[in-house]
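Q: Please design a sequence for this.
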């Protein structure tokens, strides 16, 4: 079926909302104007049970249905990225160095569209909790909202979220049970040796040689320490040291990222990295310190909620437009914290051909907003139908 007719009726309004947010991007937890814009729209829709200031600028709004029932949570992220926009669009960012390069303006718009429809019709039992979240891009805003108790406070039983996907045709959906996106960790290694003249290396303890040894040894974690069918990425992305061609420096710095789906694999990487850094430091006579920082956990969809979300996507777009066995990706998403707190699912919606996410030429496709809003609305109506 096509998007819900009533939602299609206000598609132009949705485009206007989205483009205002695109012109006025805000970063991390500082989504003050975006949150105020969201609250203003919610009040226009007749929604009065609105809670602000969660995770600094997050908003949760409650729509009561017809009769008793559970509460389903729908989440959209609101924050932008520190990127200089290069779209050339009439609605391009008006704030230098900031832009909506990941489509969070569109995600918020889709949830607002669903909110308007659900507030008008209320053809569902129980309640829907509309979760507008700041700081998905690096701040872990979803985790903060969970820590501040939104699941208990609003009695949320299940939670769902959606992300646009460039390259996936418009109106298509992708989802899978189990790991959907990876956990993302960062490691930093600080090496201290003894510097000296480049012509007299025997008088030094060279941190550069130690750094290269550590980097080469780290590569063996993937090739020799884990089962080849367990997804794992370990990438060294930075090495900084030295200042001249004839000076052996005192220090070296290594940085990189680790992506995993399984906590046991993640722990193995941490253990091996500790051993490698200590062993290589001893062999080269330097001091080395590993700072391993666990970031967002893996985004793991729950089986029952994934099947329900896939069925809902089929109701919106048709069987041929839904892939419920898509491959997981090594990107990360802080909705993982909400899925650790409650059963739920995370789904991708096709953006069509466009620049990739986090690219300065990216722009959300307004044509998919009514489709996404219809998916959110149908999730609620189909999960909690009125007799």
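A: Design:
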């Amino acid at each position: 079926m096509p998007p819900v007719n009533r939602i299609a009726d206000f598609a132009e309004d949705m485009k206007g909302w989205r483009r205002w947010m695109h012109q006025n991007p805000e970063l991390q937890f500082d989504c003050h104007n975006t949150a105020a814009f969201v609250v203003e729209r919610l009040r226009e829709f007749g929604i009065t049970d609105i809670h602000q200031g969660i995770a600094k600028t997050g908003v949760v709004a409650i729509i009561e249905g017809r009769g008793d029932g559970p509460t389903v949570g729908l989440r959209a992220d609101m924050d932008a990225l520190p990127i200089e926009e290069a779209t050339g669009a009439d609605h391009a960012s008006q704030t230098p160095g900031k832009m909506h390069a990941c489509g969070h303006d569109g995600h918020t718009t889709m949830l607002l569209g669903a909110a308007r429809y659900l507030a008008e019709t209320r053809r569902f039992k129980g309640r829907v909790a509309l979760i507008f979240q700041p700081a998905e891009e690096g701040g872990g805003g979803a985790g903060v909202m969970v820590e501040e108790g939104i699941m208990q406070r609003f009695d949320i039983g299940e939670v769902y979220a959606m992300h646009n996907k460039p390259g996936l045709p418009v109106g298509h959906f992708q989802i899978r049970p189990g790991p959907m996106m990876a956990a993302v960790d960062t490691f930093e290694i600080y090496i201290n040796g003894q510097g000296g003249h480049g012509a007299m290396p025997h008088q030094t303890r060279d941190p550069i040689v130690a750094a290269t040894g550590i980097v080469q040894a780290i590569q063996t974690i993937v090739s020799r320490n884990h089962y080849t069918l367990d997804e794992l990425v370990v990438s060294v992305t930075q090495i900084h040291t030295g200042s001249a061609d004839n000076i052996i420096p005192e220090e070296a710095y290594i940085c990189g990222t680790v992506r995993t789906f399984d906590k046991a694999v993640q722990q193995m990487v941490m253990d091996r990295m500790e051993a490698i850094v200590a062993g290589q430091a001893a062999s080269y006579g330097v001091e080395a310190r590993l700072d391993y920082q666990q970031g967002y956990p893996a985004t793991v969809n729950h089986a029952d909620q994934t099947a329900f979300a896939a069925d809902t996507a089929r109701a919106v777009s048709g069987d041929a437009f839904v892939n419920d066995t898509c491959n997981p990706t090594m990107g990360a998403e802080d909705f993982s914290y909400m899925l650790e707190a409650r059963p739920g699912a995370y789904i991708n919606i096709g953006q069509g051909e466009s620049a990739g996410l986090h690219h300065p030429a990216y722009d959300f496709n307004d044509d998919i907003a009514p489709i996404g809003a219809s998916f959110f609305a149908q999730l609620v109506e189909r999960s909690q139908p009125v007799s």
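Q: Thanks. Anything notable?
A: The mean pLDDT is 96. The domain at 183-294 is CATH 3.30.70.360 (Alpha-Beta Plaits).
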